[in-house]
Design goal:
The chain is mainly beta and 182 residues long. Helices cover 9% and strands 35% of the residues. It contains one helix and eleven strands.
Length: 182
């Protein structure tokens, strides 16, 4: 019985480590399940800037800028979005969202100039807005295979407060994070 104890405790230790933000080898096993069957047997190493992806907290996105919650840089969240018709966008979305999709707004504070990356767990349109103007993105990519990250968009940002406007999400729950990459 004693020789099986480490095997039985490994998920518990990994869960505690993930909850307090400490790296643990078994934490990789707690990553989001990826829908690709080829990923079922793959242990993925996340890029350093996305190491917090598997420790997301629930957060209800706002339906207008005045009630948009704050998402901290380097924090990941499972954003609960609203039906598209219930959201008042800050600006017209850069791409027309499909009927029946979901949307929401979050605010974030940029402490210093740099390139910031928005990572999303599913395809959705993302606009980053300062004041009443959208910020042009500088790069787009798909997320690393088997990580649960579907989309990456980079924005060159200066210090200040921004609104991240998400539209066209196919489901109500959207994993998301914002990180500084340069």
């Amino acid at each position: 019985m004693v020789r099986f104890l480490p095997t039985l405790l490994e998920p518990l230790v990994a869960g505690i480590a993930a909850a307090v933000g400490v790296s643990h080898p078994a934490a990789a096993a707690m990553q989001d399940p990826a829908p690709d069957p080829a990923c079922a047997t793959v242990r993925v190493a996340f890029p350093a800037e996305l190491s917090h992806w598997s420790t997301r907290a629930p957060l209800t996105a706002g339906n207008a800028p005045r009630n948009a919650p704050v998402l901290g840089i380097g924090r990941a969240a499972d954003l609960r979005l609203a039906p598209l018709g219930e959201v008042q966008p800050r600006i017209a979305p850069g791409k027309a969202p499909p009927a029946g999709s979901y949307a929401g707004l979050v605010m974030f504070q940029v402490p210093r100039t740099g390139t910031y990356r928005v990572a999303l767990g599913q395809k959705a349109w993302v606009d980053v807005i300062r004041g009443r103007a959208g910020v042009a993105s500088s790069a787009h990519a798909t997320g690393p295979r088997c990580t649960g990250v579907a989309k990456l968009v980079d924005f060159p940002l200066r210090p200040g407060r921004y609104v991240m406007q998400l539209t066209g999400a196919p489901t109500q729950l959207l994993p998301a994070t914002i990180v500084r990459v340069k």
